[in-house]
Specification:
58% of the residues lie in helices and 10% in strands. The N and C termini lie far apart (57 Å). By secondary structure, the protein is of the alpha/beta class. It folds into 2 domains: 223 residues, no CATH class; 103 residues, no CATH class. Helix 3 crosses helix 6, helix 7 crosses helix 9 and helix 11 packs across helix 15. The strands form 2 sheets. It has a 5-stranded mixed sheet with strand order 1-2-5-7-6, with helices on both faces. The protein has a two-stranded antiparallel sheet with strand order 3-4. The chain is globular, with a radius of gyration of 20 Å. The protein is built from 17 helices and 7 strands.
Length: 333
């Protein structure tokens, strides 16, 4: 059986857990945050039938708790509920939640899990996730990813980071969408949502790029340049981080260079450029803009710059950061 793989100081451990997936299923159904995958809910309901009155009430009761403990921080500490569930071992997950939540909040969450247990059992398949685990371990043994990950690690000057990354695999029901992820669990854990019904060479490769994207969030936020990113970005910090990281993976020049089964440029950038330009124009004119399409468009604008930094084996610096911030700060104030 394949084991964890090393990239300099990093070791990846893929984890498949029924409880992780149940938590993801329930929290995503609440749509407590714009990061929730609404199209997953459509697919799940389509496969299992319309929500009944008890389930709708459970969502109504549970959503405010997920919103309260969302992707925010108090001081410098994340209050995200997911980190108190995904990160502990399975036998400790509910104990961790019970200690973290108020008693009445824990009861609501626990009851909602019971309400959705039957529906979840209809869609969860551990074997499909195990197949993905083995496929990803095999893919990551490829030398091309060693080179790509090493470039990204060096680009972000990531030296003070954990030696282990736990990758919690979550089952995506989508046939069309590629993998997606979340890096709000601290420095040692990420979630990776994989299309369990679409295990192809293309999707496996794209999933590795999303894994690198989420890992790069950790690397960037632990880098010596992160204070400069925050200073130059101002209120646009989240957007600038996404553009910086997208510039490497999944939609940037380095990911495209190492692609064989997939085409990140075509999948993530090319078909989004027209909508991306519209989003960019709206943004700089203080109108509502789709941030995902905006990020893709600005990633396209810096594509040659990233290629230049890759060719010169250069690290992230003030010049690169300023190129991005000046591009989006054309926005009228």
């Amino acid at each position: 059986m394949p084991g964890p793989y090393y990239y300099k100081i990093m070791k990846f451990i893929f984890k498949t857990s029924r409880l992780d997936n149940l938590y993801f299923f329930v929290s995503n159904l609440t749509e407590f945050n714009f990061f929730c995958r609404k199209h997953f809910n459509v697919d799940w309901v389509s496969a299992t039938g319309q929500l009944n009155r008890e389930e709708k009430k459970a969502i109504e009761n549970t959503k405010p708790i997920f919103e309260k403990y969302g992707f925010n921080a108090k001081g410098n500490k994340s209050i995200y509920l997911g980190k108190y569930f995904y990160c502990p071992d399975d036998k400790e997950k509910f104990d961790s939640l019970e200690k973290y939540l108020l008693p009445e909040e824990y009861k609501v969450i626990s009851d909602s899990f019971s309400v959705f247990e039957g529906r979840f059992n209809k869609i969860y398949n551990e074997k499909l996730l195990e197949n993905w685990k083995f496929a990803l371990e095999k893919e990551l043994s490829n030398e091309k990813f060693l080179k790509l990950f090493n470039f990204a690690q060096k680009f972000f000057n990531a030296t003070k980071v954990s030696s282990v990354l736990n990758v919690h695999l979550l089952a995506s029901p989508s046939i069309i969408w590629s993998a997606s992820g979340n890096a709000n669990l601290g420095d040692r854990d990420i979630t990776l949502e994989v299309p369990v019904l679409n295990l192809t060479e293309e999707q496996i490769e794209l999933a590795v790029y999303i894994l690198l994207h989420e890992l790069s969030h950790i690397w960037l936020e632990n880098s010596s340049n992160y204070s400069i990113v925050k200073k130059l970005s101002g209120d646009n910090l989240s957007l600038v981080k996404e553009i910086l990281i997208d510039g490497i993976s999944p939609s940037g020049f380095p990911a495209q260079k190492y692609s064989k089964a997939s085409n990140p440029f075509k999948r993530f950038l090319f078909h989004n450029l027209a909508d991306g330009l519209k989003a960019y124009e709206n943004f700089i004119n203080n109108k509502e803009a789709d941030k995902q399409k905006l990020s893709a468009y600005v990633s396209w604008l810096i594509y040659p710059l990233m290629a230049y930094y890759y060719a010169g084996d250069k690290k992230l610096d003030r010049k690169f950061i300023k190129t991005i911030t000046e591009t989006i700060k054309k926005r009228t104030t």
